Amino acid sequence: MATQDLQFQVTRNENAKSAEERAAILENPGFGQAFTDHMVDICWSERGGWHRPRVQPYGPIQLDPAAAVLHYAQEIFEGLKAYRHADGSIWTFRPDQNAARMQRSAKRLALPELPTEYFLDSLTQLVAVDGDWVPTAPETSLYLRPFMFAKEAFLGVRPAKKVNYYLIASPAGAYFHGGVTPVSIWLSTHYTRAGHGGMGQAKTGGNYAASLVAQQEAYEHGCAQVLFLDAQQGEYLEELGGMNVVLVTRDNRLITPDSDSILEGITLDSVLQLGRDRGYTVEQRPVSITEWREGVASGEIVEAFACGTAAVITPISEIKADDFDIVMPEVAERVSMSLRDELTGIQYGRVEDRHGWLYRLDA
Fold first, then answer.
1. Looking at residue 321, what is its pLDDT?
2. How far apart are CA 117 and CA 125, in angstroms?
3. Distance set, CA 18 to CA 15, 22, 132, 231 (Å)
4. 118: helix, coil or strand?
5. How far apart, in whole angstroms, are the C-alpha atoms of residue 81 and residue 293?
6. Contact between 114 and 6 (Cβ < 8 Å)
7. Are 50 and 114 in contact (CB under 8 A)?
8. Are 255 and 287 in contact (CB under 8 A)?
9. How many Cβ atoms are within 10 Å of 88's Cβ, its own excluded?
10. pLDDT tens-digit readout, 37-53
11. Tens digits of per-residue pLDDT, 107-164?
């Protein structure tokens, strides 16, 4: 379906941070704590379609108390990063896949699907005014957060007829200070993240809200993340609170759970492709917690890791549960870390992009 060109109106922030203030933030940005000076706003209505695209000063969004999102949680979001390469250029990684996933999420939440061209244009428009916010230090980036929600004021239960798409950005420091270290994961047996036929494959806030109590439980057990099992049998692996999981076998297989209630990970897909490039066999299929336990005990499963946009790849050292633990073996050279080095090397322009995954934002 053809799309018409969007003509963005750009309103500069008169209270933008000074170069000195911005430099102080970029020196230690953390994650999701500071935000750039501008944001993108595109309106949608049932009658008018996508219209009134704007780049405007970052600031509060005015909502009617009856806005549908506040009552029925009709909202979705995405997450990707902008990377500064050695020559100063700014790139992002597979944004077409984020656009496609956002369209799938929109369809599941009965929201309008933002065309890929509009999604990509919003990224370049924001970077055009806030490009100085992309940091230069190693392992840093500008985190891009597109999101969409039902803005129509009404209390009837139906899809909203007025929706807004926004894009904000936040400088992100190195996710791991002092290097990447293996983490402990809590196995949730009391809570599930999503069920068959639910919203598990959509990137919507409700899924993350459902994970928070289990994540809190993980912290109480000294774990960094929580792993969910399927809602039907409580036996098959789903995903972590915000990351996918991969098992590595001694005969060079990468195994990751397959389910209609797991969010399709772009980082995961990229990691699996890099594994195939190296000759690994990739298996995406149902994986039980029993298979993991028995595989570690027999020496068949030698490594496990989590992957996602924020942390990229994180090795897993152990799984803790109410009545058992799975302790991963010590390995001299981790496949996960080698894959992480290759993937981040592509993202930052240090390694050849054989698959055409990079997309320039400042051209």
1. 96
2. 12
3. 9, 6, 11, 50
4. helix
5. 35
6. no
7. yes
8. yes
9. 10
10. 999 999 999 999 999 99
11. 999 999 999 999 999 999 999 999 999 999 999 999 999 999 999 999 999 999 999 9
In order of 159, 175, 266, 347, the CA distances from 148 in angstroms are 13, 26, 19, 26
Q: What b-and-e string marks burial along 18-44, b requiring 16 or more CB atoms within 10 Å of the CB?
A: eeeebeebbeebeeeebbbbbbbbbbb
Return the structure tokens found at 191: 């809570």
Question: Which residue reads 């930052």 in tokens?
Answer: 348
Contact 142, 105 (CB under 8 A): no
Beta-sheet strands, E only, within the chain? 9-10, 38-45, 49-57, 75-77, 80-84, 90-93, 141-150, 162-172, 183-188, 225-229, 237-240, 244-249, 253-257, 281-285, 301-308, 312-320, 325-327, 358-360
Least confident of 23-37, 164-178, 335-349: 164-178
State how far Cα 348 lies from the chain centre.
18
User: How many residues can be counted in the chain?
Assistant: 363
Which stretches within the chain are classed as H helix?
Answer: 19-27, 68-72, 95-108, 116-130, 205-220, 266-277, 289-298, 335-347
Write the pLDDT tens digit of every residue in 237-246: 999 988 999 9
DSSP 77: E
Kindly state the tokens that stand for 16: 């933008």
- For residue range 4-41, what is the model confidence (pLDDT) as tens digits? 788 999 999 999 999 999 999 999 999 999 999 999 99
Return d(Cα 110, Cα 159) in angstroms, integer.
6
Enumerate residues 6+ apart whose C-beta is below 8 A from 258.
284, 285, 286
What would the two tokens of residue 208 be?
């993350």
